[in-house]
Amino acid sequence: MKLKELAEQLGLSQTTVSRALNGYPEVNEATRERVNKAALKFGYSANANARRLAMGRVGAIGIVVPIHSSERFGPHTSEFLSGLAERLSRDEIDFLITPLINNDEISAYKRLISSKRVDAMIVSHPSLVDERVAMLAEAQFPFVLHGRTNIDTPHAWLDIDNKGAFYQATSHLLDLGHKHIAMIDGLKGFTFSEHREEGYRDALTERGISIDPNFIVHDCFSDEIGFRETQRFLSLKPHPTAILAGSMMTALGVSRAIRAKGYQLGKEVSIIAHDDVFPYLNASNMVPAMTTTRSSIRSAGTRIAEMLVRLLDGEPPETIHEVWPVELILRQSSGPPVIPAK
Amino acid sequence: MKLKELAEQLGLSQTTVSRALNGYPEVNEATRERVNKAALKFGYSANANARRLAMGRVGAIGIVVPIHSSERFGPHTSEFLSGLAERLSRDEIDFLITPLINNDEISAYKRLISSKRVDAMIVSHPSLVDERVAMLAEAQFPFVLHGRTNIDTPHAWLDIDNKGAFYQATSHLLDLGHKHIAMIDGLKGFTFSEHREEGYRDALTERGISIDPNFIVHDCFSDEIGFRETQRFLSLKPHPTAILAGSMMTALGVSRAIRAKGYQLGKEVSIIAHDDVFPYLNASNMVPAMTTTRSSIRSAGTRIAEMLVRLLDGEPPETIHEVWPVELILRQSSGPPVIPAK
DNA sequence: CTGTTAGCGCATTCAT
DNA sequence: ATGAATGCGCTAACAG
Fold this sequence. Notes:
The structure is a homodimer of 342-residue chains. With 342 residues, chain A is an alpha/beta fold. Chain A folds into 3 domains: 3-46, 434 Repressor (Amino-terminal Domain) (Orthogonal Bundle), CATH 1.10.260.40; 60-160 and 298-325, Rossmann fold, CATH 3.40.50.2300; 162-295, Response regulator (Rossmann fold). Chain A has helices at 3-10, 14-21, 29-42, 48-55, 75-88, 105-114, 131-139, 162-175, 191-206, 223-235, 248-260, 297-312, and strands spanning 60-66, 94-100, 120-124, 143-146, 156-160, 181-185, 216-218, 242-245, 270-275, 291-294, 321-324, 327-329. In chain A, the strands form 2 sheets. In chain A, strands 2-1-3-4-5-11 form a 6-stranded parallel β-sheet, with helices on both faces. Chain A has a 6-stranded mixed β-sheet with strand order 7-6-8-9-10-12, with helices on both faces. The longest helix of chain A has 16 residues, at 191-206. Chain A starts with a helix and ends in a 13-residue tail after the last strand. Chains A and B meet through helix 4, helix 5, strand 2, helix 6 and helix 10 of A and helix 4, helix 5, strand 2, helix 6 and helix 10 of B. Strand 2 (94-100) of chain A pairs antiparallel with strand 2 (94-100) of chain B.
């Protein structure tokens, strides 16, 4: 069923039917009523492509997801997308996921723009100097960045205080008396990863503790990495008495390795994990309950969707940015170091 | 830059340029070369909406994701989407995710069809009698079902042998000497959940073991549910000496509860989990390594994308369906029951 | 091999 | 308050 047919059925012009359906004020209420009823009855719904072609606006936002590295389409991504979806569905905005196999991200973004398939985009996982952001900002294409990057051109972004999170966590461990603290975080090059390491380093340096490169790991967020690297840590002399884990997945592996060694969490070895708040993996329910730096990635998604809508409503990008604080939540996996019984 | 402008630049007609770009055979190779080079130079890329309007084909497939239940947009979904993406990106097919807040799924599907935004759809999480499937099959709209349902109208689908998986797992535990076996699986009503329970029941019945409704749980897949329900199990007399977990998330919670009670996995209480194969959560790396029924949900996604492409190429839906076997992989979390030391 | 012409289905001027 | 006419940018018959 198309507009023309619907109009014929009703004995009205396409124009009037179109106006009635799109809520234009100059339509007689009775007519509108009649039109709406008929549309419902015939299951009419405008051809989105024709509509977009005519209006020049799409009603969809784009997101480019590299799919070969599990790092980028794992549980974090799905939680984030859920958050986005929650807000966007209210305005009936779809999102278009463009999978990316090779590494030519820039051209994927460019194609998405020039083919006019989306009104705006969301960019995730920025590096310190991110060429995607530079390009989009330069092109003045509306987008919101999840994370931060050092690009001068004004753009909208939302980030959490990753540096503060690891600074807080490290400082807390130092307060408890730990001298040897390790960290396992995400891949090097990403801003969040660099920021976290900065926080960690600052806290140590502030107390005059030298930094041991053997205690710093950057890799994917997974149970396996957590396990393997913790085993390595525990074979060192002296070994760390506390470990920061960049994700809950990592933390699971770290925990296993600690237990496998016969140590107790929060005793011989403490652990603080960054918790992005997964509904299916709850830090407070673990045994022992896990001390975490917490910030909901899902909420971030929702908020970013909100920012996107503001951007599309014409708000200038330079006024749209936020840094979210991260809470340190003390539970039982962190405590003063206990000397292992020989 | 639009087609017209590009054509003017080249001193050619729009038609020729269009044909050159779209790989039509009747174009002079030299001309094609020239056109392609110019397109690249000017960053031209066709307006997707105009293109779709003219062609009547979209180059995108749709997927409706209910977002309020974490059950439906969790790690399983993201792995599945990754798999889809892997195959679809080869044909430059995007996917459109339509978030769904209220429960009116049917009308969301109908709108997606009549607005011509997608060429085909993927339907997940069917119930035994699924009205979405009935509607789509009736409307002869191309779609592939992930899972199975009892609908007569021919349609394409891919499912794993859920019944066989739980049958195998249960039988194995019975072979080991277990008499009291519990299961924690997904929400009731979904086909996969029902099939699994069937497999479980069949195995027990076959050995003349009566079924205790207290030993059967249907709920979301999460660490928390696994933990809570296992605590409940272990407070029963007699309590189960083996537990089937419907997901790895559930299994994490089950494991914790077993350990919290002072039992060892594979000794006092055995566990077999269904493993959808998450890259960040590896059953063989757990301590003890986890016995699983394994079937990669990501591969299923890739295969379903493949089926979708065949469907769009005109293959009739009734010839497109597969049941994948599920492997039982024995590791250390399952063993003969050990009587707890008092 | 290339160009001319006519839609694809809708939103939107400009009339009335 | 309603209708007729125009164009969004592209593809595909139809001609040559």
